[in-house]
Hints:
The chain is of the alpha/beta class.
Amino acid sequence: MSSSDRIDVxxxxxxxxERIREKREKGIYxxxxxxxxxxPLPGGRRIFSDDLQDPLxxxxxxxxEEVEYDPRxxxxxxxxxxxYARKVVISLVRWWMxxxxxxxxxxxxxxxxxxDYEGQMAPRFGARLERxxxxxxxxxxxxxxxxxxxxxxxxxxxxxxxVIRKQSEAFVDLFAGRKRVLDLGSGRGIFLQLLKDKxxxxxxxxxxxxxxxxxxxxxxxxxxxxxxxxxxQIEAGSVDGLYARHLAEHVLPGELVxxxxxxRRALAPGAPLVFVxxxxxxxxxxxxxxxxxxxxxxxxxxxxxxxxxxxxGFTEVEIRTFEPTENRLRExxxxxxxxxxxxxxxxxxxxxxxxxxxxxAPAK
Length: 364
């Protein structure tokens, strides 16, 4: 239907009301219909009402309106009995209904007082709401040091590009032959460049405009958008691979589950999915290096992340740990309990610093 063919409902209703008014003035409806039009409904209003044309006046009228109910029955013979029964019921529930009506009246008046005549929050409530929203936003920004310049942080703590490139190379072959691989939190575009070098099609999304600009300077496709928002916007099954390095620890568990659900929708059947995140099973990571990034919200134990993928329907889920800690206890000690304890300490305190949880979208 074109815009010219659209029906103007308001104009149509105005015509209907005008015709009804003219017919009533001419007496076309007759006395019976006129009597019905004046019969009060349970709420005290007439059948035809223009409340929506002047809602504020109607609201004031409704708040002050007394609700009336005529218990009389006009049926022959049994009418008096019905009338008596209605009066008895009314008398029994009057005290209970009175309490409910009193409470509802208080609620109605409080709601009416909360809004000004333009339908906006009254100044005192609006100001309080704006203050709460502002304070909540400031708290969230301060909690993760959102005002920290990300480029400087990456230069100090983000890791050397050759090291990250070497770590990421281990996962490129999982996407061999793919045409449209999505890199969530693509950062400087290291993984995207690896895909491009291997002839694999891919693109990235990142919230940091500086990172997106760096990717584009390298001739890589990148978009400035939130990961979850993007996953929900693209067509189902439109990507045939997904990679996310150090993204999961930046979101809360509930949002991570939502991201995994959106990933499953966006991935083509059987497409691989890889999430890389710090390994808190290594205590030197969970207790120290994980917290070097103020935007990290919560470490994710490998077993828990594996469970997330499995419960969301991903198949062939596995965990791969990598990047051993450089400083470890020497294990060249006599065999026996001492060596066993040293090995256990190395595994617990100085194990692999990262892990990847890998799965596949379910095949249809």
